Model the fold of this input.
Amino acid sequence: MSGTTTTRLTLIAPATGRDLREARFSGDGPVDPAALARAARAGAALRGTFPRGTARWVVSPSTRCRTTADALRGPAPDTGPPPGGVLEEVPGLAGPDMGRWRGRTLAEVSAEDPQALVSWLSDPAAAPHGGESLLSLRTRVGAWLDTTRDAERASGTGRLVAVVEPDVVRAAVAHALDLPAPALRHLDVEPLGAVELTGRSGRWNLRVARALD
Done:
């Protein structure tokens, strides 16, 4: 298969659920039914932006990302392959490993281990929870981005949709714009929020605005 000169990547955060609303570290609880219905409606518009089957769909290895991706892709046809082909779970796009803080809220950690929380908030290389630092997350996600961009240029269609954890969206934007790791804390990602990156010639660009008409 011939490649493409430009890779277009749409990053989408999962639909909301209790764990996202409560901002639990590495939470992976179920998605709200109303949020899934919203994802299904949004998916119909998204799929209209590219011919059926031409985009590669990938997800973070989490229940909420896979559930959201299934809603966005729409129901499988009676015959033939599912929309977008096989949904690929990518370990390199996993949310950060939060170690012993997994499933806990910021308030809970602050009450029980305030010094460790201060260290984590002030130093992107710190991992007082015993898991993955913010800097390591940015490096891991950036490596996947660059490898994928180059692979798509060699033999892909150039169109990818990635339903990934909010922290992965932040890390991807930081890498694309060559932002320092602390900048991740200043990027807000809404449930079902979408970010579009385009990659070519060894770099990534962020599409910051789209015409209203």
Q: What stands out?
A: The chain has a mean pLDDT of 88. The first strand starts at residue 7 and ends at 12. Residues 134-155 form the longest helix (22 residues). The helical segments are 18-21, 33-47, 63-73, 106-112, 114-122, 134-155, 166-176.
